[in-house]
Each structure stands twice: as C-alpha cells, then as structure tokens.
UniProtKB/TrEMBL annotation:
Keywords: Hydrolase. Residues 25-103 form the NTP pyrophosphohydrolase MazG-like domain. This is Nucleotide pyrophosphohydrolase. Pfam families: MazG (PF03819). Coiled coil: none annotated. InterPro entries: MazG-like_dom (IPR004518), MazG-related_YpjD (IPR012359), YpjD/YvdC (IPR047046). One of its GO terms (molecular function) is hydrolase activity.
Amino acid sequence: MQEKTMKQMQQEVDDYISQFKEGYFSPLAMLARLTEELGELAREVNHYYGEKPKKATEKEKTVEEELGDLLFVLICFANSLGIDLQAAHDRVMDKFRTRDGDRWTRKEEGS
C-alpha cells in the first residue's frame, strides 16, 4: 500500500464523505463520535495490555483497528471545520520543541 500524506488522507476522507447527502456531522456530533472511538480504543488497550481480558463472547478487534477508526473520525472532524491537520501538526511540534526543549532527559549519543 502506498504511503499517503496527511493532505492526501484528508482529501480521501472528504471524497468519501462528499458522496453522501448528509455530509459531515455537526462539530458536537463529531466530538461525541471521537469520544466514542476513544472509549473503544481504551477498551482494546485494556484488553491487550491491562488487567481486563476479553470475554470469550467478545468480538476480536485490534488496537490498530481502533486507532484507524479514531483517525478517520479525527480527519472528519478537522475537514468539517476546514482545519489543515498538517499545518496543525507543524504548529504543535514547534510548540513542543520550543516549550519542552529542555524539559526531558535526552538520550546519550549512541545509546
């Protein structure tokens, strides 16, 4: 599978959503969906890495699948608000590099 840029992913999601009359959900509905997907991710992480194993009757899902669902809804949310996620990412990385540049203990060279 070919690697995609964030802009390409946003366009792919927009092309998909644009084929339906309903279009994007409202920002509040998007936030609710994002929260729902985050809860599903938390449940999977707890099953695989936490103290709560799956019941024998529970459907097998993966952390990867849930992260994908979360990413899809996040892209929908950004698209519905006209937010360029690449630009948002660049701004937040600049903020972390500037604000937190000396906050954490750096690894030694060669380790």
